[in-house]
Every structure is written in structure tokens, then in C-alpha cells.
Amino acid sequence: MGARIQFAECAVVAGAIFLLTGPAVRSQTVQHLSVPQPGGMPGMPVMTGITRVTNGVKVTWDGPSGYYQVFEEATLGSLKWVAVGKATNLVRNATITALYSNAFFRVSGPSPKYVGSQACAECHPAIHATELKTGHAAAFTNAQFVAEGGQTNRYCLACHTVGYGLPTGFVSLSKTPRLAGVQCENCHGPAAKHAANPDDPIAVPRVELAATVCGGCHTGSRHPTYEEWLTSGHAEVVAGALSSMSSSTTNLNNCGRCHSGSVRLSLLEGNPLPVGDFNVSVVCVTCHDPHQVTPNPAQLRNPIASTANYSITASGNFTKQYKTNINLCAQCHNDLAASWTNSIAPPHHSPQYNMLLGTVGVLDTGAPPNQPGSHALLVTNQCVQCHMQTEDAAGGQPAITGHSFRIELYDTCLQCHPFEPELLAEFTKTGISNQIQQVKEDLDLWAMAQAPDSLWTEYGTRAWEYTTPGDLSPGGPGPTAAEQALIPENIRMARYDLYVVLYDGSYGIHNILYATTLLDTAENWIQEQLNQ
Ligand code: HEC
Ligand code: HEC
Ligand code: HEC
Ligand code: HEC
Ligand code: HEC
Ligand code: HEC
Ligand code: HEC
Ligand code: HEC
Ligand code: HEC
Q: Which residues line ligand 3 (CB under 6 A)?
């Protein structure tokens, strides 16, 4: 028996919000939590938008899993609500075509029934056992929280307990001890009906990957984690990757392993690829395991540092290439097994880990390079230590949690560079930038002076480039696959090293001695060619 909606115990939200004129909301097979809600997954319906679409208006709302019913007010102020469609709407949106003169809506849905995580232990024992060890489970009993008077301060409870302020939610430690702390139902929504009847498909709790679910609590000036993350490149799937993933399931697998949080999670868990639901970026749970504290700090899925070389290819079996003990950031920020012999396009924009280790690029020794810099070996927490520096909130200034992943602070640099590390960084970037420009100009010189006539006539200074040139040579395609054979090896190795340094993005800082070696080597090869 499926649980039927009972209007007597319905939660209702009135949706007299603005009628937004705008493009139709792009249809998704999975409707994600679009706006963070205090406490995580909302326990009651929340209106999130009313948008004009070609054939009427689209009303969207959010809330836990269950049946919903939309109502429309007959005339303004009449408070006469007319049911629209059936009372068994399982998706959390409805397109309403028969409109009255005004657009006032309300939605009724399942009323919250919280139970507490103890009730989940019987059927989800492993998750329950590991979740109990997380900071979340202790969010109410944490000594500092107690000392700050949080346990009895109503301003603190929405984020430190389950369902505070809602029917059946947390009231106080003495009345509702089972609902203290952050638990399953903060992220999955009220789940008593599911625990009582797990076979009811309507009540299966939501599994939400979007960062908005965490953003309901990890927000505000004391810990603006969500706000910082929103400003980072991780908050969006870059357009080029999105269009590739839309084009084929092969690309969904190939690009999605690094560009889509939902694809990556499916690959990690051995589930089918989320066709139609891949526009989920690098979200909180791409890096953090929501249920697990071990073996890495901060519930991370992978360690913060490692020194073994690592690449994955943008194709093929992910599981065979995945190594759990490699630096979390390096899981995606690696060179994709780039090689100078590829003449289709420059290496990907992601060789940072291999630059740090000095293992990407080609040297004239012939041996594979292996020249880790001090930033790989002595900076204990590697990427995280420089890119995720933190600062507590003070004097009206919000805290910095490190989740913009940019270099916001230079404090950690001071232990090794006691004088103006920021200036040192600027100075180094300018130097490497100039050297990149020099190598590029010498490649152009080769194109003008020495490239085969056919290439010079057709491609001009793009004669040295890849078939799809990199950012240094805008303006059109480069030599075709067949014509690539006309470009000498020296020039092809030089252009590869040049793009490795450019696309690392740190302008040498990740590994200054090695970056300089790569550019010097490239320059030598070009000079050798020019002197022929
Ligand atoms: C009596 C057994 C039982 C209890 C108790 C139970 N569950 Fe479940 N749960 C299941 C089963 C079986 C499924 C799979 C249902 C399905 O996929 O149709 C499930 C699925 C889920 C899912 C969705 C998984 C997915 O991949 O979509 C979540 C989330 C979940 N349970 C959370 C909870 C929480 C939170 C509690 C405690 C409040 C709980 N469960 C209590 C048996 C139970
Ligand atoms: C209901 C509010 C709430 C939600 C929703 C929530 N968190 Fe938290 N989180 C907290 C609080 C409160 C703490 C601090 C617990 C403590 O240290 O006492 C915390 C701590 C953490 C920590 C540190 C854990 C540790 O062991 O030190 C991580 C990591 C974290 N949260 C990640 C997440 C992620 C990822 C999500 C979304 C999937 C999420 N949180 C959702 C409230 C929340
Ligand atoms: C908007 C949600 C929210 C509210 C409201 C909230 N907290 Fe928290 N609190 C969090 C989150 C999230 C964390 C974990 C932060 C982290 O680890 O980055 C946290 C962590 C803490 C910690 C652990 C130490 C620390 O600062 O990380 C204490 C103590 C604490 N909160 C006290 C309080 C008190 C006292 C109140 C009420 C005055 C309160 N919180 C209100 C979300 C909230
Ligand atoms: C901080 C938020 C958060 C908390 C707390 C949380 N979950 Fe989850 N849960 C998630 C997210 C996000 C996913 C999907 C990502 C994943 O599987 O790693 C998930 C996945 C699941 C799944 C399906 C996939 C799987 O891993 O089997 C089940 C079942 C589940 N959770 C049950 C629970 C139960 C039971 C609890 C409490 C004991 C709980 N969760 C606590 C956020 C949370
Ligand atoms: C090993 C992980 C990985 C794989 C696989 C991967 N990427 Fe990327 N990609 C990245 C990272 C990391 C960045 C960002 C680096 C930065 O910001 O410096 C990036 C940047 C990009 C960019 C923005 C830079 C630019 O070229 O303008 C595009 C577009 C892109 N990737 C497309 C793709 C496509 C298409 C695929 C599949 C064929 C793919 N990526 C496969 C990790 C990967
Ligand atoms: C690209 C990976 C990545 C993403 C995405 C990410 N984090 Fe983190 N997060 C980390 C790393 C790494 C650390 C540990 C930083 C350190 O140890 O200095 C961390 C630390 C934290 C902590 C502090 C844990 C502690 O031990 O006190 C919290 C809380 C947290 N993250 C929450 C979030 C939330 C919420 C989101 C989404 C809005 C998020 N993270 C997104 C990588 C990530
Ligand atoms: C799951 C894959 C993945 C992981 C893990 C990951 N990144 Fe990224 N990162 C990306 C992608 C993809 C982009 C590019 C997004 C774009 O171009 O819009 C990116 C972009 C960036 C950028 C450029 C930021 C910007 O705002 O333009 C930085 C810096 C960065 N990542 C640092 C890190 C650090 C530090 C870690 C580890 C804590 C990390 N990343 C972990 C995939 C990942
Ligand atoms: C010694 C400190 C340090 C370490 C360690 C480090 N970085 Fe960087 N990284 C920098 C600096 C400084 C820049 C230049 C930032 C700027 O120009 O704002 C940079 C630039 C970048 C960029 C390009 C940023 C952009 O906006 O395009 C990415 C991506 C990046 N780093 C990722 C990583 C990853 C991934 C790791 C670990 C494999 C890592 N970094 C290790 C300091 C570091
Ligand atoms: C644990 C010590 C350590 C830390 C921390 C560290 N560096 Fe370095 N850094 C070095 C060493 C040693 C070198 C010399 C090159 C080498 O050995 O690879 C260097 C080289 C550099 C260079 C090249 C210019 C030069 O003087 O050689 C720049 C720029 C730089 N670091 C910037 C930074 C910045 C910015 C940070 C912080 C975000 C940072 N470093 C953190 C040790 C460190």
C-alpha cells in the first residue's frame, strides 16, 4: 500500500510570489534543490519560482519526497482555492495552462514526520555506524557548542538539530533527545514514513547531490563555505565540457569523470551513468563523503597529499584507472596522460599535479621527467595548503574557509618566504609570462622563416600549431592531421612543453625550476631548428 496524501495533515505553502517573465526553466529529469534552505533538506514544501512559459506558467517548489497538489486562487483575495491537476504530483513542478486573471498558487504536500537516525540503523547499519562518528552527529554535544549556550539558543538550533521549528522536529534535549545533532534527515528529509514502510516508493527519501543541501547550514559569516564555493570554478560545469557531455554517453563517461559531480559519483559507486542529470558540478559531496570520517581528514574521499605520479586518460574504464590514495585535487587536476606525439590539440588545462611533481613534458634526455619541486615535497598539504588557507571571522569580516580554492592569503608562504611572498609570486608570474611570450614568438619566427611553404601560405604563424590550436594562436585551425607530419619533431616537442607550462596556470610557481627547464628546452629546440 502506497501512503496516500491525507489533506488533514498536509503541509501547505502559499505561492503568491512574483510572476517572473523569463526563459522557460530547462527541464531536468532530476529536480535539484535550487535554493539552500535553513537546516538542509526542507521538511515542508517551499515555493522556489513562478516563471512564464510559452503555454502558461511554471510553478516550482521544493520539499521532501511525496505527493503534492497545486491550487490556484480563483479571484484575487477570494481565498477560494481551486485544485489544479491531481493530488499525486511526484515531481516538484507543474505547468499551469488554464490561468485565472491573477497568479496566486499554493502547494500542499506531505507533512513532515521526523524519527531520528536510530530508526535507520536496522536497515542501513553501515551508513548509520559511520555517520555516528562524524562531526555532524556531535554537532549538539560538541563542548564548544555547549559552552556557547547553543543548546538552548533558538538561533542555533536549525543547523545543529533535526527539523527544528517544524512539526515532529526537535524541541529540546529533554523532549526530543533523538533529534539532537545533524543527522540523516537533515540531508535526506523527514524519513519516518520510509522507515515504517520501506517498500513505499513514494516515501523513499531524497538523495540530493547539489551543494544547496549543505549550503543550508554551511553559510553565514562564521563559515561562508557555500558562498565561497559558489564563486569558484567548481560551482559550474564549463560550457565546453557540458556540450561534449550532452553529445554522447562516451563523452559523458570521458569528460564527466572530472567535470560532473553526478557522473563521477556514479563511476565511483558502479552505478549507471546519470544520463540527463549530468549538469552537477564539482559539489561538496564530490570531495566530501557525507557518511564517512575515515581514513582521510574532513570526511574527504581521498588524501590531501601524495607523491606518486598519476594521470588518468579521458577515455576508457574509469574504475581501472582510479587510485584512491592519490591527492584529492590530483584526481582531476592531472595531465590526462598527455604526450607530445598527440598533434590534434594541446594538452588539457589540468596538468597541475604533474607540474608539481615535474613529471609532465618532454626533455632532451629522452627519459621520462621526474623533477619534483620544493612545493611538492616540503609543502606538506600540497594544493590544499596554498589554495585553501583559512582565517577566522573577526571584526565584522567574514571568515575565509578556503572554498574559493583561489590563493586568497599568503600566510602559509611566510614560513619559507619571509619577505613579501605575494610580490615574489607576481614577479615570478611576470617572468614566466615573458618567457612564454618569447618562446611563442620564436615559434612564429620558425613559421615565417622555415615552415614548408604550403603550411605558411595556408596557416601563417599557425603553421607550428596543433590541428586545433591552443589559446596562443586564435584565428582558425592549424595544419591538418596529414600536414602535421611536415612539422619537425623539435617544433612539436617545443610547442608541447610551451603549452604544458601555460596550461598549468600558475606561471611557474608550482615548480619554478622545472617550468624554467621546460621553457629553456623548448627554446633550444626552436633555435636548433632555426639554425638549420
Ligand atoms: C525497514 C528497513 C528500512 C529502514 C528502517 C530505513 N530504510 Fe532507508 N531504505 C530501505 C530500502 C529497502 C531502501 C531501498 C528502497 C528503494 O530503492 O526503493 C531504502 C532507501 C533509502 C534511501 C534512498 C537510497 C537511494 O539510493 O535512492 C535513503 C536516503 C534512505 N533509505 C534513508 C533512510 C533513513 C534516513 C532512514 C531512517 C530514518 C531509513 N532509510 C530507514 C530500507 C529501510
Ligand atoms: C543541518 C545543518 C547541516 C547540514 C545540512 C550539513 N552540515 Fe556539515 N556541519 C554542520 C555542523 C553544525 C557542523 C559542525 C559539527 C561540529 O563540529 O560540532 C558540520 C560539520 C561538517 C564537516 C566537518 C566534519 C568533521 O568531522 O569535522 C564537514 C566536512 C561537513 N560538515 C560537510 C557537510 C556536507 C558535505 C554537507 C552536505 C552533504 C553538510 N555538511 C550538510 C551542519 C550541517
Ligand atoms: C546557518 C546554520 C548555523 C547556525 C544558525 C549556527 N551554526 Fe554553528 N555551525 C554551523 C556549521 C555549518 C558549522 C561547521 C562549520 C565548519 O566546520 O566549517 C558550525 C559549527 C559550530 C561550532 C564548532 C566550532 C566552529 O566554529 O566550527 C560551534 C561551537 C557552533 N557552531 C556554535 C553555534 C552557536 C552557539 C550558534 C547559535 C548562536 C550556532 N552555532 C548557529 C552552522 C550553524
Ligand atoms: C551531510 C548530509 C548527509 C547525512 C547526514 C546523511 N546522508 Fe545519506 N547521503 C547524502 C548524500 C549527499 C548522498 C549521495 C552521495 C553519496 O552516496 O555519497 C547520500 C546517500 C545515501 C544513501 C544511498 C547511497 C548509499 O550510499 O548507499 C543512503 C541509503 C543514505 N544516504 C542513507 C543515510 C542514512 C541512513 C543516514 C543517517 C545514518 C544518512 N544517509 C546521513 C547525504 C547525507
Ligand atoms: C582528468 C580530469 C579531466 C578530464 C577527464 C577532462 N577534464 Fe576538462 N578540465 C579539467 C580541469 C581540472 C580543468 C580546469 C583547470 C584549470 O582551471 O586550470 C579543465 C578545464 C576544461 C575546460 C576549460 C578550459 C578550456 O579549454 O577552455 C574545458 C572546455 C574542458 N576542460 C573540457 C573538457 C572536455 C570536453 C573533456 C572530455 C573530452 C574534458 N574536459 C575532460 C579536468 C578534466
Ligand atoms: C574540490 C574539493 C572540495 C569541495 C568541492 C568542497 N570541499 Fe570542503 N574541504 C575540502 C578540503 C580539501 C578540506 C580540508 C581543508 C584543510 O584541511 O585545510 C575541506 C574542509 C571542509 C570543512 C572543514 C572540515 C573540518 O575538518 O573542520 C567543511 C565544513 C567543508 N569542507 C564543507 C564543505 C562544503 C559545505 C562544501 C560545498 C559547499 C565543500 N566543503 C566543498 C575540499 C572540498
Ligand atoms: C572532481 C574533479 C575535481 C577535483 C577533485 C578538484 N577539482 Fe579543481 N577544478 C575542476 C574542474 C573541472 C575545474 C574547471 C572548472 C571550469 O573551468 O569552470 C576546476 C577548477 C579549479 C581551479 C580554477 C578555479 C577558478 O575559479 O577558475 C582551481 C584553483 C582548482 N580547481 C583547485 C582545486 C583544488 C585546490 C582541489 C583540491 C582541494 C581541486 N581543485 C579539486 C575539477 C576538480
Ligand atoms: C606553493 C603553493 C601552491 C601549491 C602547493 C599549489 N599551488 Fe596552485 N597555484 C599557486 C599560485 C601562487 C598560483 C597562481 C595564482 C594566481 O595567479 O592567482 C596557482 C595557480 C593554480 C591554478 C590556476 C588558477 C587559475 O585561476 O587559473 C590551478 C588550477 C592550481 N593552481 C591548482 C593547483 C593544484 C591542483 C595543486 C596541487 C596539485 C596546486 N595548485 C598546488 C600556488 C600553489
Ligand atoms: C615549505 C616551504 C615553502 C612554502 C610553504 C612555500 N614555498 Fe615557495 N618555494 C620554496 C622553495 C624551497 C623554493 C625554491 C624552488 C624549489 O626548490 O623548488 C620556492 C620557490 C617559490 C617561487 C619561485 C621563485 C623563487 O624564489 O624561487 C615562488 C614564486 C614561490 N615559491 C611562491 C610561494 C607562494 C606564493 C607560497 C604560498 C602560497 C609558497 N611559495 C609557499 C618553499 C616554499
A: 142, 144-145, 148, 150, 153, 155-156, 158-160, 217-220, 223, 225, 401
- 402-419: b or e for each residue (b if 16 or more CB lie within 10 Å)? bbbbebbebebbeeeeee
What pLDDT was estimated at residue 50? 86
pTM above 0.70, yes or no: yes
Name residues contacting ligand 4 (CB within 6 A): 117, 120, 124, 127-128, 131, 136, 182-184, 186-188, 207, 209, 265, 285, 289-291
Ligand nearest to the CA of 393: 3
Task: Give the distance (Å) from ligand 9 centre to CA of residue 247.
Answer: 42
C-beta of 119 in contact with ligand 1 (< 6 A):
yes
Q: Is the peptide bond before 418 cis (omega within 30 degrees of 0)?
A: no
Q: Enter the C-alpha cell of residue 338.
A: 598527455
> Which residue's alpha carbon is at the smallest distance from atom 20 of ligand 1?
204
| DSSP for residue 173 | T
- What ranges do the domains of the chain cover? 7-109, 117-188, 418-530
- pLDDT for residue 155: 97
Q: What is the pLDDT of residues 337-356, one digit of tens each?
A: 999 999 999 999 999 999 99
Question: Atom 5, ligand 9: which residue's CA is nearest?
Answer: 413
- Give the SS3 label for residue 468: coil
Q: Which CATH number fits domain 7-109: 2.20.25, 3.30.70, 2.60.40, 2.120.10?
A: 2.60.40
